[in-house]
Write a structure and sequence with these properties.
The chain contains 2 helices and 6 strands.
Amino acid sequence: MLLVGPARREYAGLVFSHLLIATDFSQPSRLAARSARALAIAYNAKVTLLHVVDRDDTQEVRNNAATLLDAFAEDLLEGVSDIDVSVVEHHHADVAI
């Protein structure tokens, strides 16, 4: 989880105003989303749910990712008042390892 934005509340010296959840739809990412949900509700924080697809993927794959991301948000982020859902295109060749 990544915290960004102006401070709204503090917890043990940490600011929780905006949580970023990057997901690949795996079980570990679902568990992380549940933890983020609890924080978002407790601190009335905004949540950005993010999934990255390869630019070379077909439009069908991108559309399916958007549908899965919406379902992921509905299933795991119930009760969060401010959610932004985003599918981002990236090309694996742009990343240096």
